[in-house]
Design a protein that fits this description.
Helices cover 37% and strands 19% of the residues. It is of the alpha+beta class and 286 residues long. Strands 4-1-3-2-8-7 form a six-stranded antiparallel sheet. The chain has a two-stranded antiparallel ribbon with strand order 5-6. Helix 1 (3-11) runs parallel beside helix 4 (163-171).
Length: 286
């Protein structure tokens, strides 16, 4: 095992005796230690840098690695100390998208791992970096933060990156511990709720509560605001009515779909994110 393989094993690969040169990012149990957020078409680092900076300054998490995909995107690679199920990884990345990239067309973003649409029991993940991507010799590679803007037009290398240089850049990175991941998710949910309340107050829709709702232990109907739209977006009622769907599809998948569906009212998406938090308990979790 060379130095680069050792760093990839330390940060991203499932625990076990697998050969790092051929191991995938998803373990036999369907869980992963790597979470990848990709922005493409174009690979605009000025947008993705808000996430890179925010997870450190706002969420007190280690810096993720930065990579060019070798195709059309720039990526953030988050390393987890302990593998998590796909639904957990997707919930966290989805919350990051809401917090930092809410105005970006979802078609430009990939949040990996994710369930395989053609085979729901399978998981789709990013290709390992560095690797050759095209027959014309383009390569994916980890890059330094100050060089990331250079790749906006061409997010690839025209030759294989130096393995020792790749290993050196990875050697400075740390993995996210389970307790830190949970605290970050709680903060993301709280910030999303606060931002919505502030926006509602600024628009004159009320005293700072969500339109049609007052805050407390969850969102409860605020019938005093009779001019607000009725129960089209009532979180608890919607959750109750959707229970048969959740039972059929699995509660975590249902909650994750609700949280990431931009057509769903934000209060309900916040409730779904809150409900996902218990699944963030893990080894060493708070």
């Amino acid at each position: 095992m060379n130095r680069l393989q050792s760093e990839l094993q330390r940060l991203y690969l499932p625990a076990g005796p697998a050969d790092p040169a051929h191991a995938g990012l998803v373990g036999p149990d369907g869980q992963s230690r790597a979470m990848v957020l990709e922005l493409a078409r174009p690979a605009d680092w000025s947008l993705l840098s808000a996430v890179w900076q925010g997870v450190q300054a706002d969420l007190d998490l280690p810096a993720p690695a930065i990579a060019v995909s070798g195709r059309d995107g720039v990526q953030l690679w988050f390393s987890l100390a302990h593998a998590v199920p796909t639904v957990q990884a997707a919930a966290f990345l989805g919350a990051l998208r809401l917090r930092y990239l809410g105005g970006i067309d979802p078609e430009r973003l990939r949040l990996l791992p994710e369930p395989d649409a053609s085979a729901p029991m399978q998981v789709v993940h990013a290709q390992q970096v560095p690797a050759a991507q095209w027959a014309d010799g383009r390569w994916s590679a980890f890059v330094a933060q100050d060089l990331a803007p250079v790749f906006a037009e061409e997010p690839w290398l025209d030759m294989p990156p130096n393995p020792d240089g790749q290993a050196e850049s990875l050697s400075r990175l740390k993995s996210i511990e389970p307790a830190a991941l949970r605290r970050a998710m709680e903060r993301l949910v709280a910030d999303t709720a606060t931002a919505h309340v502030a926006a509602a107050a600024a628009s004159g829709s009320g005293s700072g509560s969500l339109p049609g709702w007052s805050s407390g232990s969850g969102w409860v109907p605020n019938t005093a605001q009779s001019g607000d739209p009725a129960p089209a977006a009532m979180p608890h009622a919607a959750m109750h009515l959707a229970a048969p769907i959740a039972a059929a599809r699995g509660p975590r998948k249902f909650l994750l779909d609700v949280m990431n569906d931009e057509r769903v009212a934000l209060p309900l998406r916040i409730e779904a994110a809150k409900a996902l938090l218990p699944w963030f308990e893990g080894p060493g979790g708070a």
